[in-house]
Amino acid sequence: xxxxxxxxxxxxxxxxxxxxxxxxxxxxxxxxxxxxxxxxxxxxxxxxxxxxxxxxxxxxxxxxxxxxxxxxxxxxxxxxxxxxxxxxxxxxxxxxxxxxxxxxxxxxxxxxxxxxxxxxxxxxxxxxxxxxxxxxxxxxxxxxxxxxxxxxxxxxxxxxxxxxxxxxxxxxxxxxxxxxxxxxxxxxxxxxxxxxxxxxxxxxxxxxxxxxxxxxxxxxxxxxxxxxxxxxxxxxxxxxxxxxxxxxxxxxxxxxxxxxxxxxxxxxxxxxxxxxxxxxxxxxxx
Length: 286
What we know:
Elements: E1 10-11, H1 21-33, H2 51-70, H3 84-101, H4 107-127, H5 148-169, H6 178-188, H7 192-195, E2 206-212, E3 217-224, E4 227-232, E5 240-245, H8 246-253, H9 259-264, E6 266-270, H10 272-277
Parallel strand pairs: 2-5
Antiparallel strand pairs: 1-4, 2-3, 3-4, 5-6
């Protein structure tokens, strides 16, 4: 906790989401079983993927988690990965290859395989020490090593996001109540210190992020000698204040809005240079 020039702020802590995965999966399966045949081919905002393509990708996510995490299979990338751009390119290639291959699978087969793997994924993730090092770091947060709880949180956000994209594509109600969306936002905002890593400001400068709505919250970035640090709560005199609604927030962090659209839906007060840097945040691999 810090005080003084700032009101009392609490450092962000672990977000334990392993037990939120089974109910999230149940919502997905209920959604998929209710689709009409034409719905599977509907385009989504995760272009160029259709509803069926996203469903196939979610299956791939489960199979990789079991193979690489539980079973210790070496991912053995075909290309040498020397940085973030190489990693993104490699993952995009894996995703594309899988989606192309699964076009020969029916929706019924995909749903059956999703259900077959779901309990195994949950059992594996539940077996992990949440504070032990994860097999893969959360790269979009700039980490070389991450605890399991953060990696599991990333898993939750990816599954929530892709389900939300399906829901939007078929005009189904979104999972945007606080139990579903707040954990996603709480993980997404962990991208902010990395987003600001090259942004200079005087020590003690702070940036207040107010995400409005049932699932929202208030977080503050503070510049210290070591860099930017993220806290819960609001400082007394922030250098910049950013306010946006919860829908704008999750779409901003997941590349669902271009920067211009996000800017029009965001209010910035104070130092605009600092405030506008928030608009470049990403909490996905892109």
